[in-house]
Amino acid sequence: MRSPLAAGARVVLLDSALMQLGLSQAEHALPFNYLYGPQGKPISDPAYQYISLQFKGIGLRPLSPVQWRAVYSASGDLLLSWLRRDRDPASDGWDQVEIPLSESSERYEVEILDGFSNVIRSFNSVSSPSLTYTAAQITADFPSGLPSPFRFTVYQLSSTFGRGVGKAAGIYFN
After folding, report:
1. CATH number at residue 67
2. pLDDT digits (tens, 9 = 90+) for 32-84
3. What's the CA gap between 145 and 41, in Å, rounded?
4. Range of 38's domain?
5. Do 151 and 170 contact (CB within 8 A), yes or no?
6. Omega into 129 within 30° of 0, i.e. cis?
7. Residue in 68, 91, 63, 92 with CA at minimum distance from that of residue 79
């Protein structure tokens, strides 16, 4: 049941006339100027207001990777791996071996964290969903051994948006 409104009440009518802006991908981060006001009045009316908005294109931001793993090799290196996710609707199937890549290339940034979640080592432009953290690097970063849990963060990179949402993994070793 609708509640009656008093005469002169301010309302916003959301109906089929409301549409998403038709911005191209190249325009997603540009500032735009907007005028808004009451229907039926000319835009020169003082009731119209002006605003400048710049959108961030959040829909283009890469999703965070999932299913992190850390496995020691015989040489003492630590193989870090994860699964890529994608915004492409075609990547939402459960029966796929490899999901589509909507970016121009597959790239990640990986941060190794200390026991207090401070970044102590970064790997930039990693081109696959895995990384070898060598025994020499581990010894240099953690002279007294890896903290428990061992934590690292992975960010997927986008040529359009930049760095996506990072997700930190905490791995316990037996």
Report:
1. 2.60.40.10
2. 898 988 888 999 999 999 999 887 778 788 889 999 999 999 999 999 999 98
3. 71
4. 25-55
5. yes
6. no
7. 68
As given in the structure block, the two tokens for residue 146 are: 């890896």
- According to the 3-state scheme, what is the secondary structure of 113-170? ECCCCCEEEEEEEECCCEEEECHHHHHHHCCCCCCCCEEEEEEEEECCCEECCCEEEE
Q: 1-22, pLDDT tens digit by residue? A: 566 778 888 777 777 777 777 7
5, 24, 55, 86, 161 from 29: Cα distances, Å: 38, 10, 5, 21, 9
Q: Is residue 147 part of a domain?
A: yes
- The residue behind tokens 């999703």 is 63
121 domain residue, yes or no: yes
Residue 111 to residue 20: CA distance in whole angstroms: 37
